[in-house]
Amino acid sequence: MKTLIVNGTVIDPASGLNRRTNVLVEDGRVAQIGNTPSSAADRVIDAEGLLVVPGLVDIHVHFREPGFTHKETIHTGSLAAAAGGFTAVVCMPNTRPAIDTVETLAQVLETGRRDGLVKLFSSAAITYGIEGSRLTDMESLHQAGAVTFTDDGKTVMDPHLLYEAFRRAAELDVPISSHCEDHRLVDRGALNRGATSRRLGDPGIPALGEELIIARDILFAEETGARLHIQHVSTARGVQLIREAKARGVRVTAEGAPHHFTLTDEQALISGTLAKVNPPLRTARDVEAVAQGLRDGTLDAIATDHAPHTLEEKSLPLDRAPFGMVGLETAVGLTFTRLVHTGLLTAEQAIAKLTSAPAAVMGLPVGRLAAGLDADIAIIDPQKEWVVDPQTFLSRSRNTPFGGMRLTGKTVLTMVRGDIIYDDREGADNPWPADAD
Ligand code: DOR
Asked: Ligand 1 mean position to 24 CA, how many Å?
C-alpha cells in the first residue's frame, strides 16, 4: 500500500525541513519526501493548506491502567492521543498497583502493544507505591524499558533517598522527572494561594512550595550529574530558576502544560473543580512566564499531564475533588491559539516543542519525519476554528475546563506506521473501534 500526502507544508523540526512538498508512505515507513507524482500511489491525501508534521509526542500522560480503568484505559487513552495528533506517549506510574516493579511495567508495555493505537512508553516510580520511603530497583526497571523515573503526583521528600535516586539515575543516564511540591508547605489547598483561593475559602497552594523543590532538585542534578526533567512548571520564579540553571550548565530540561500557558486561577470561578489541577493554575504573570519560557527555550517541551477523572469524582466539593484535567484532545488547539496565532512561537517552533524536543528529553526514537523512519504523522489544520465539546472526546473522561472555548488549530489526521488511526476530514470514515473494554 502506497499513500501519498500531497500539497501540504511538511515540517520536520529535527532536520529543519519546512516546505511545501509531498510525503510518500510505503509499507508503514516514509519512503520519500519530495515531488513524487500522484500516479505513484494507491491512496492520495490532499493536505492543501495543512501542516504535515511528525506524530506528536506527549511525555506526560496518565492512562490509569492498571487500577483506575473507570477513568481511562490504555486503549481509550490512546484513542484520545490519536485524536490529538499524538503518536507516542509516556505513561505516568501512579496507577494501582503503581508501576514500581518489572512485572507491572512489563504488563503496561504489553497492554500498550496490544491495545494502544499509539506507541506507548512508560516511566517507573522512584519509590515503591509512590510512598517516598523505599527506592525501586531502578536498574532492572530501566533494563525492562522505563524511560524515566518519577513519583509524579507526589514529591520524594527524603533527601537521603533522593540523593541515592539521582546517583543511580546518573549511572544509568536516565532522567528523573520531578513533580515539584513541598508537601509540608502545600498541605490541603486546592487552588493557587491568592485572591481566588481566599474568595473560595480554600487554604491555597503557594507558588513557593513548587519553587523550593525546583531549586532543590536542580542542586541534586548539579551535584550528581544526573539528568533532571522538571514537570509542568507553573510559576514565574520556577521558570527563572530553570533558566539560570541551564545558563550554568546543569543538565535540566522542563515542560510547560497547555493549561498553565492559557488559564489563570480565576478559571475556578467559572469552571469550579474542573479547574483544579496540580500544580494549580496560577496568576496572569505566571501564565505569561510559562509562555515566555517556552519561547526562549527555558521550557523545552509542551506536555499535557492528561489526567482523566470521572465527572462524579469532579463533582465532589473543591477540597475533595481529585486534581487533574484531560489534555490530549485540546493540546494542538491551545498551542496554536495561544502561542502560534499570537506570534509567540512560529508553527515550526511549536511543532518542535511537541515532537523532537520531548523525544530528546526522554531519549525516545520518535518525533521525526524523514525517509526510512516509521510513518508516524500528524496532519494539522492551523486555521481550523472549532469549539471544544467534551461530549465528543474519545477519552473515557471529560474533565476539562476548556468546554465551550473557541480554538483555532486542530489535528485532522493521525497515522502510526502508515495506518490512519484518526481521520477528521470531511466525509471520513473513522477506523477506531468503539470504546469497549
Ligand atoms: O493534576 C494532577 N493530576 N497532577 C498530578 O500531578 C497528578 C494527576 C493525576 O494523576 O490525576
From this structure: 40
Predicted pLDDT of residue 435: 46
- Is there a catalytic annotation at residue 305? yes
pLDDT band at 183 (very low <50, low <70, confident <90, very high): confident
Residues 301-330 have a mean pLDDT of: 98
Q: CA 118 → CA 173, 282, 361, 408, 409, distances in Å?
A: 26, 32, 19, 25, 21
- Structure confidence at residue 240 (pLDDT): 99
- For residue 153, which atom of ligand 1 is closest to its CA? 6
The CATH architecture assigned to 2-52+373-423 reads Roll (2.30)
Of 151, 202, 305, 423, catalytic: 305
216: number of CA atoms within 13 Å, CB side? 20
What is the third-level CATH fold of 55-362?
TIM Barrel (3.20.20)
- From the CA of 92, give the closest atom in ligand 1: 10
C-alpha 52 – ligand 1 centre gap (Å)? 31
Instruction: Check for a shared fold between 2-52+373-423 and 55-362.
Output: no
What's the rounded Cα separation, in Å, for the pair 413 and 379? 5
Report the nearest atom of ligand 1 relative to the CA of 325: 1
Ligand 1 pocket test target in 63, 152, 177, 276 with most atoms within 8 Å of CB: 152
Cis peptide leading into residue 97 (ω within 30°) = yes
